[in-house]
Amino acid sequence: MKRLGRNPILTPRDVKPTRDDLTVLCTLNPAAVRFAGQTLLLVRVGEAAPARAGFVGVLRHDAGAAGVQVRHIPIGDPALDRSDPRRLVYRGRTLLTSMSHLRLARSRDGVNFTFDPQPAVFPSTPYESFGCEDPRITLIDGVYYVAYTAVSEMGVAVALASTEDFRTFRGHGIIFPPYQKDVCIFPEKVGGAYICRHRPYLSEFNDACIWTAWSPDLLCWGRHEMTLAPTPGTWEAGRVGAGAPPIRTSEGWLEIYHAADEAGRYCLGAMLSDLDEPQRVLSRSSRPVLEPRADYELAGLYANCVFCNGLVVDEGGAMTVYYGAADRICAAALTSVDEMIAAAKS
Amino acid sequence: MKRLGRNPILTPRDVKPTRDDLTVLCTLNPAAVRFAGQTLLLVRVGEAAPARAGFVGVLRHDAGAAGVQVRHIPIGDPALDRSDPRRLVYRGRTLLTSMSHLRLARSRDGVNFTFDPQPAVFPSTPYESFGCEDPRITLIDGVYYVAYTAVSEMGVAVALASTEDFRTFRGHGIIFPPYQKDVCIFPEKVGGAYICRHRPYLSEFNDACIWTAWSPDLLCWGRHEMTLAPTPGTWEAGRVGAGAPPIRTSEGWLEIYHAADEAGRYCLGAMLSDLDEPQRVLSRSSRPVLEPRADYELAGLYANCVFCNGLVVDEGGAMTVYYGAADRICAAALTSVDEMIAAAKS
Fold this sequence. Notes:
The structure is a homodimer.
Chain A: E1 2-3, E2 23-35, E3 38-48, E4 55-62, E5 67-74, E6 80-81, E7 87-90, E8 93-96, E9 99-107, E10 114-115, E11 131-140, E12 143-152, E13 155-163, E14 170-176, E15 180-185, E16 194-200, E17 210-215, E18 220-228, E19 239-242, E20 247-249, E21 252-260, E22 266-273, E23 281-284, H1 295-298, E24 306-313, E25 318-325, E26 329-336, H2 337-344
Antiparallel strand pairs in A: 1-26, 2-3, 3-9, 4-5, 6-7, 7-8, 9-10, 11-12, 12-13, 13-14, 15-16, 16-17, 17-18, 19-21, 20-21, 21-22, 22-23, 24-25, 25-26
């Protein structure tokens, strides 16, 4: 995989906040799709509350009339824990340092992108009071489905939206209850059912693993099976999660996934699974296909992190992998279907 | 609610272990149903490994040829934490002190029960290596569906089985991925869809709340909505979870649910929800309808606990509530639909 010389391709400077008093902290983890001759990225844009000396600000969306609300917590408050840069813990509750929405960026060449002036998917339900994060887009029968993480004080769940024109989006509610993330839907039915990957959160019983689920209608999911677990002692010892929606190839379903090691360093891997039984992994890359090395991957809001949830493939098999780097910016790298198949088998 | 004088109605002494070298630690949390003129309880039976001085034993079911395996860990091992009586933590992983299966107990009078000599549902898949727990039975169109907790090193999930004769049970796989428990299915479709309650585990973001989900086929579930959250400062401040499957009444869906306070004391409550929109709670009991008071509720494997996942109602509206007490034995209490409706409104 070869990084674009143009990287980073999108940064917080490239997008206007939704209100003049807010700051864009991060533009990350884009879904990607080709549409009407353009490349579209659906980017997670994280906004932060106005700075106030001696305080930390948090944003919360109220699904009622109040809309986005700003709250400031004194930095010296003993009930405040700021040890994780992405989160606050206040009075035993987790709050996020930024509230995300999903914003489209459009490009003719796949490299130079311009953000839309308005959000595409903005928090609107009580399940999104802390934000909408990490979308994946799958085209099925002329409809683009967007699975994204919906975060609120009711937990971290997965919501579904759809669009046919990338102008208006329709919400379909929560498709996976807490604590789930990293849902990506396959582009076609297998054995008569829709398929997706998902990622139950780790617990005192289990690691963070990639699971597979089946659905008759894209809304209700069942027959959950565990598909890929972390491998102790390796670059994927800490957690694994699905990346961009899988691509049908003659060798199986090809997918780029993410994995973190014990220290929390996030890399990308390539995996092949059975075309008829996608819960069966055929092979996967013994080493990462992308690991944090560039300065924008080594430092940011969460250091040492590359995270992919979108890619596009042209007719000749050339692949552009879009990814979030260090939880702060969008970058891209070039490869091909053949190269990733070879990597998945190596 | 009036406890039976005969309580406890089932104890570990009443059931034979599945192997001569195992010990039955607990018989708890029964599902209940009327079938062919009898009352059937589907009881969680927890078995423990053979005692060995200086060691703690754990059981694990291997879905391959090995079957039930016994492992002994030295009590002095510094990697062993035994502070929770229901669990061990060993090398950072949670293991259970008992492995549960589901066993039927049958009765002509609803009071005097006899256990079947063999399990009804025994761990058989990799998702059940640590056991099958806490069943709920719902009769729909002549089929009895059993939703139960499937525990393994892949997490705490919910599996579905079905039977028409309470002799043979058919497995339907995992219907809720980790970390979920406390699934009870409504006895009829509402608005064209099957309905259930479920309980995502608490996380750093969310409390342990009762959720509602919808399904076209009982296997795939979606449109998840949060229904009932803990109430700070009360007997239900810690967590809430569904109990026995809801009963249709003229006042709404009546259900007995469980709630724990901040100290982890488990009581039962009564709740009414809208017949057409069961995600809408109409009213619920301000005080518990049953709280731990009897000696067998105050002490056991988990002290101060009553937990209901089964009840039966006769044609006149008399209700027998079966419940697990202190995570060790089965007990029962008598009440009526009218009394529980009144309690839910008080």
